[in-house]
Design goal:
- 51% of the residues lie in helices and 18% in strands.
- 13% of the residues are buried.
- The model has no long low-confidence stretch (mean pLDDT 90).
- The longest helix has 33 residues.
- The chain starts with a strand and ends with a helix.
- The chain has three domains: 113 residues, Alpha-Beta Plaits, CATH 3.30.70; 185 residues; 105 residues, Chitinase A, domain 3 (Roll).
- It is built from 16 helices and twelve strands.
- The chain is of the alpha+beta class.
- Strand 7 and strand 8 form a beta hairpin.
């Protein structure tokens, strides 16, 4: 067998496999003999069927199967010997292959192929610098944390005095028609918080009113930038196709006001446990500052990880065979075949970004062994649950039990293991790279995070 490659563009070309009689005939004869020994054909004992009959009945099919195996094996060997990695599937060249005459003693198969670009990992490590942000907290930041702390432990209490900014107001509303309650009209109840999200007009209507007061209002003019879905789902609780009037009558049925807690040892113990040493406002502010700094230290580490990940996705040093990818994707996947030109050109960017990361993982795994331990998976599960339910406070044994239950789901287990492998791969790459230490305020850091997360194409 002979395998040759002819380049037609960067990382794209034609792969030709030439097979002669001496390559396939021994394998064909071997398969025919195996079938002959086990064939059960009327009029012949098992194993006594003439080879000529087996050849007549199954010869073409056997030869086609043998040729397919030989071609695939030849291509695998060619990739290994030349240290190549083909992208996607090999696309048979219809002009060259056509309907092969299996009676010929020599056959040639031609494929359009795309080759994965070579990644120079050392170049990436040398050229990319990672920003390591040290977030500097100010007294203003601690003031904001103290406000958030107080709000967290505040409670709402019913009041009978006039409504003011910050109050929670519960309304019973009825649909109007010509200033009268509409017969069979919509009736609903919902609550609003008097804050910056309400329109100025609606805020002015509520201010200084009390429980039991009523008024008319436009349901579309309650909150700023309120959409139809919000009105239907949260205010009126009606279906998407039910019609409604704009004007409603509202009755104030309840008003509650946030009551801030006293800063005392009882509150400190409630927040930080019975053994806390916090007993003064200054100690609380110090603790809030420490918590804030730990939070942003973690956020800064997360920023580096995501920044590094995006740098791998957007590494421009990798040239892909665009024409091949377009041919392969549109011929192999219905969703790609049906994309508009605009959507295809957009989505292929993300597709190639995914290929980038796969290349990085492959090259890194060839340099170092990325071992995923059970502890790595358990830590990820703990982080996921903590993010969803911040109050969870299990011991190690309980977390292990939770993790074992989660990992019984094979699909979830694969996802968590893959995530752990990705994180360890990123950690190895991050450790190889130079970092630039930068002091930054919380507001500026948030702006950097927003910029990093922006969709730029």
């Amino acid at each position: 067998m002979q395998v040759s490659y002819q380049s037609t563009a960067t990382n794209q070309g034609k792969l030709n496999v030439k097979i002669v009689k001496d390559d396939f005939l021994p394998e064909v004869s071997k398969e025919i003999e195996n079938i002959r020994k086990n064939a059960k054909i009327k009029g012949f004992r098992q194993g006594a069927v003439p080879q000529s009959m087996i050849t007549k009945l199954y010869g073409e099919t056997i030869k086609a199967e043998v040729l397919n195996k030989l071609v695939n094996k030849a291509i695998e060997n060619y990739q290994t010997e030349n240290n190549l990695s083909f992208l996607g599937d090999l696309m048979p060249d219809k002009n060259s292959n056509g309907n092969q005459d299996l009676q010929k003693d020599e056959m040639e198969f031609s494929f359009n192929v795309g080759i994965a670009p070579e990644l120079d990992l050392n170049k990436f490590i040398d050229e990319v610098r990672l920003p390591s942000y040290k977030i500097v907290t100010t007294e203003k930041d601690i003031d904001a944390e103290l406000v958030a702390f107080m709000n967290h432990f505040s409670t709402y209490n019913n009041i009978l005095t006039e409504i003011q900014s910050g109050d929670m107001v519960k309304l019973k509303v009825n649909e109007l028609l010509s200033d009268s309650i509409k017969e069979g009209g919509i009736e609903s109840e919902f609550s609003v918080l008097l804050d910056e999200h309400l329109t100025e007009e609606f805020t002015n209507i509520l201010l200084n009113k009390k429980t039991g007061d009523s008024f008319h209002f436009n349901i579309r003019n309650v909150e700023k930038e309120m959409d139809e879905k919000t009105i239907r789902k949260y205010f009126l609780k009606i279906s998407d196709d039910q019609q409604f009037e704009n004007e409603f009558k509202a009755e104030i049925i309840d008003v509650s006001r946030k009551s801030k807690p006293e800063l005392n040892e009882e509150l400190f113990k409630k927040a930080y446990g019975e053994n806390t040493e916090i007993s003064t406002l200054e100690q609380l502010r110090s603790q809030l500052q420490s918590d804030l700094e730990k939070h942003y230290e973690s956020e800064s580490s997360n920023f580096i990880n995501y920044y590094l990940y995006k740098q791998t996705l957007q590494w421009k040093d990798l040239q892909y065979p665009d024409e091949f990818l377009k041919e392969w994707l549109t011929n192999s996947f219905e969703e790609w075949k049906n994309k508009s030109e605009h959507d295809f050109n957009h989505d292929i960017i993300h597709f190639k970004e995914g290929l980038n990361w796969q290349l990085f993982k492959k090259v890194i795994s060839s340099r170092t062994k990325i071992d995923v331990q059970l502890e790595d998976v358990v830590n990820i599960i703990k982080q996921k649950y903590h993010a969803q339910i911040p109050g969870l406070n299990f011991n190690d044994e309980q977390w292990n039990q939770v993790s074992m239950n989660v990992l019984k789901d094979e699909t979830k287990a694969k996802e968590f293991i893959s995530e752990a492998q990705t994180l360890k791969t990123q950690a190895w790459l991050r450790d190889q790279m130079m970092k630039t230490e930068i002091e930054i305020s919380i507001d500026d850091f948030k702006a950097k995070v927003k910029e990093l997360n922006a969709h730029k194409h």
